[in-house]
Specification:
Blueprint (H helix, E strand, L loop, with lengths): L7 E10 L5 H11 L3 E6 L4 E7 L1 H13 L6 E10 L7 E3 L20 H7 L43 H8 L20 E5 L10 H10 L4 E4 L4 E6 L3 H11 L7 E3 L3 H7 E2 L2 H7 L6 E6 L15 E5 L4 H10 L3 E5 L11 H8 L5 E5 L11 E5 L2 E6 L9 E12 L9 E10 L9 H17 L6 E5 L5 H10 L4 E5 L1 H13 L5 E11 L5 E9 L4 E7 L2 E2 L4 H5 L1 H12 L17 H13 L5 E2 L2 H11 L11 H9 L15 E5 L2 E5 L1 H12 L4 H27 L3 E5 L6 H13 L3 E3 L11 H11 L2
Parallel strand pairs: 2-5, 7-14, 9-12, 11-15, 17-19, 19-20, 21-28, 23-27, 28-29
Antiparallel strand pairs: 1-3, 1-4, 2-3, 6-14, 7-8, 8-13, 9-13, 10-11, 11-12, 15-16, 17-18, 21-22, 22-23, 24-25, 26-27
Helix pairs in contact: 5-9, 13-22, 15-16, 15-17, 17-18, 18-20, 20-21
Length: 766
Amino acid sequence: MAKNETLQLARISVRGIVQGVGFRPFVYGAATRHNLKGWVCNTSEDVKIEVEGGMEAIGQFKLELQTKAPPLAHIEDIKISYHPPVGYKSFEIRHSIAEEGKYQLISPDIATCQACLSELLDPDDRRYRYPFTNCTNCGPRFTIIEDMPYDRPKTTMRYFQMCPQCQAEYDNPLDRRFHAQPNACPKCGPHVELLDAQGNTISSPDPVASASQLLRKGKSVAIKGLGGFFLACNATNDAAVETLRKRKKRFSKPFAIMITNIEEVKRHCYVSPEEEKLLTSPQSPIVLLKWKEDSSISRMVAQNLHYLGVMLPYTPLHHVLLRDSRLPLVMTSGNISEEPIAKDNDEALRRLSGIADYFLVHNRDIYSRYDDSVAMVERGTTQLIRRARSYAPYPIHLRFQTRQVLGCGAEEKNTFCLTRDNYAFLSQHIGDMENMETLKHFDSTISLYKRLFRIEPEIIAYDLHPDYLATKYAQELGESGLKLIPVQHHHAHIASCMADNGVKPPIIGVAFDGTGMGADGHIWGGEFLLADYRAFTRKGHLEYLPLPGGDAAIKRPYRTAIGYILSLLGESALDQGLAFLPQVSDVEVEIIKRQTERGINSPQTSSMGRLFDAISAFMGIRDEIDYEGQAAVELEMAAYKENYAHNRESYPYNIIEDDEMRIVKLGNLLSAIIEDLKQGMPKGEISIKFHNTVAKMIEEVCCLIADETGIKQVALSGGVFQNRLLLRKTVNLLEKGGFKVFTHRQVPTNDGGISLGQAVVANFTE
């Protein structure tokens, strides 16, 4: 401090992700460097700091807070006020303060940092091969936290008393493990154990090494991770992958794989600079990469697909396991179908004993279930497909203040969303709401978020579909007096995209998906909306066509295809030699005819997702599905041939106007595709032409709406826009037409983003 400079006391409040990320030791170091006295402590709301010194030193200190914070810290706001000095003699880190009703942002779980990885692989380090190595820059956070402030007694690490060496690290403000709540070592921390399928302990001096040997022999191993169990097997072994598929009853849906390092990933996949950055980021999600033809990874990992879901090791256990096995490993959720991922040892043994040959377990409890996040990079931008590990529970920032609202989400790919202030706390992926286990997971996770972020919803938003479990859950809450607001599915999609991008409405919304209850009682899914956060007007849609058998048509796209042919082209079109028809019995064709003619169990739909299904069936690509969206995905994959990539041709269609509603008529489109099939045109070429047609259709309807309204911004949302080929073609056409186009980034374009839209719409509804 300069001579004669007046002492000042600065009281500082820092909000954001500033707990459990090494922020207090960083503050301690900065204060010491600038010769400031005072203290720092965590509270339930923020990090509070008092520093005393000269104004120049305080100014430099504040600048460091803003520009040099630890890598995992994310500062939302810094408030500072000045007061008379009180005469502090030193700088100290004080104990945390719990404050009633206050909340703090929470760091998601973060992949192993380079410093911890170096220790893990160093034979001379005391944490060599220790599967729970971590520090304030990495490791478990959200999955072990029971309440805030983030202190060890409020985590599942409270059962492990630190040894003197770990305690010394924990107590040293200049150590990177200062107040690292999961801090541990082989002497005092959690440990792993290898079990057989009956739960008997297999004696081994190194259970991870033994598990690696089993994987090399073609066995499957259930591995306890950060947020639950994963099922692993040798990804280069056809028999191992096939066996896992049969046992897990996941016959076609692609598996994710884990590969040791980025160099090895590049041997199997094409990796852009943006994709490499995402793969190696602290979030370390599964990234969809273009698969190389000469890759040794079994084609059974992702059947009929040109993309592979790849992630790098993100925990010390993964790093050791992958290096020991020297294999790419299938690493898929430890569940059957869309049940919640198993998280406890006993639960895993009970639920997975018929699937896994062995279990690699540990004794650190998981408080919150957590699947892996899935992302893709399109046009240089990350787009989340499943938002979970390393992203949730970090909030979506809204450009407006909200009431406390709960959005209950959709039936498939469910998430929920809680709002307060200008934050939307979108949950991790919950799963398909098809059973009581998932509903319990949904309910318990809502309770956790409410407790962590001190939210008591005054409004409950839900989907219009009366049979959704999430809708029934909302209506039960309404019986206790909470205000209920139904939100139309596709309006929620567009509101979600607007909130994701901070868009100022109104906007033209293109909402394309498989199924969503419409305001008129029909099944929507090919919608053009004029929307803001409060309301929407339907400005256009695909023409209504039948779904013979309802859900049966979704699972068997050939039924949709036959229903569309009958409605658009007449019964005679069934005699044109379509390749898929001989696979359908005459009896079933007759049943479909009656259902279509009489409207018996044959709901009307405007769904773009169902149109993709029908075209896939026409072409003999996929007439029955094993997982949601399979027919459309494989139709897209058919287009990835070099000689078709530059095809600009499209199919005919008509747009009619009926009472100011633009309706896209599809008869000419189907006729032209059938003609190309009769002429023997390659499936890939037909697929490209169909994708070109849908993109052109979107651009044309948006232009008509823009001519009427003057609005030139468009939001694209719904599961259909997970189709990279369609997304790319659509954005290019719209941008050439002068539109500003918004796509999802932070939240999924599929139903995983619906709850955000519901909460936002409900917030603006009177």
